[in-house]
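Request: How about a record?
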Amino acid sequence: MGYLLTLLSIVFVSVSANGWAEIEQRAIAKTTSQDFNYRQRQLDTAVSEASETVDEMFRRLEIIENNQKEVINCARQDAPVDPDSYSIWDNGRGKCVTVTRGCVPRPTEPIESRELVFIFDASSSMKETYNPPKVSNDCEHYYTRYQKYCGSKYYPSFYMTHPVEKQCGKYSTTKYCQYCGSKPSAPRKKVVIGTKVDGEGIPYNVYGYEYITSGKEWDDYQRKLSKYNDCYNKNEATQCMQKYNQCKSDARIELQDEINAYNEAYAEWKVNVYDVYSQCRNEQYQAYKQCVNDFNAIWNTAKSEPRITAAKKAVKEAIVKAPTFVELGLVVFNGCQNVKNHGFYLNADRYDLLKAVDAIDATGSTPLVDSMIVATENMKIKSESVNAEGYIVLVTDGEETCVSQNSTTAMRAVCDTAKALKKKNDGLVINVMDLSNNSKLSCISEYTGGVYASVSSESTMLSAIVGEMSKISDVPEYCYAPTDVSGYGTIDVYKDPEVTQ
């Protein structure tokens, strides 16, 4: 009998050792196959990838040479091609597009006065950095590169189970403990705990939380908590965690040979599979980043800057380019109670106007309604004895915030104000230069016959302003119906997008 038991023990040990050796050999074979396939793919793509890189470099250099001059000419041209149009560089299309305004009838009487007032938004949001819209790159995404060049977009997994985990389970709840889940949290609700007043004297609510101690939510919480406590107490009574920890401690001693074989197989897998894949993944990600950087160096060269800085540059350059026969005015707002009318400046006084723009500082709220009313107060378009044209360029980055805290109510007041001002002053035209791409503000220009331009930078804002100034002439002779263009509204008319020479 003793001889038989000894023989069975020898056979068991022999089978166990042979089994682990076979598993180890299969893991090594799988690793070798994956490594060979990966290195073969690298070899196959190396020459073609290098060739594509050289071709791409020459293609991009050619694009830079052909395109850069046209971008600059489009953004900075002094005079439009037609007397009734101006050009803006369209990043999305990568072309210079010609923009025109809707019908402007020939005046029946000579124009005796032409005034242009800049309404400058100096609210606190103008201090924020504006990031110009980016042109989407054509680079192969890094996940695609992982799949294509590394074999998978996911990190490889080691499929052998650790001997201790195989015997005792991965978690205590596998064999010994009951899974209880997370301890439930007491229900609570958001409530107003007080009020404060901002710098403009406008009150706002301060919120906090209070616990719910009755009702359905409270009853559900009590039921879940009771179930969790029963589960937890049962685990404590059975000492399941102690049993699980003891199992792992014993297994580490009993299964030492199996653990060593597992560790050796894992180490070889890590070197030949995981590390190779990780290196490939890192190389492809760096290649993707380099492609993106090269693309941005060509197509996305506009730098981020505070909105107020971009607005100042555009307005100042527009002042310099303004026709000498136009009287220029300036209205600045930086708070609900702080709308300042700087008055009008003749051609000889424009240096003082430039200094006034330089001195603008951003702070406070956005009173669009009051600023439009103040801008028209001293304009000659209000005079019955003078045939005058009055133009306003509103440079802003936000909605009205002083009339009402409700956005819908505030914007209705803005639109109604623009409509009322146009009804009282037929010669009034208000153009909106919007740095926030807030299409709600387009009602201002719609009701007054102006242009709404969503501007992305100082250069596009300047193009739009100069384009509008070009319409201020002694004999305006352009009149045609506005065209609806998808994505741009019905006020601006985009002609066939021909690149400006």
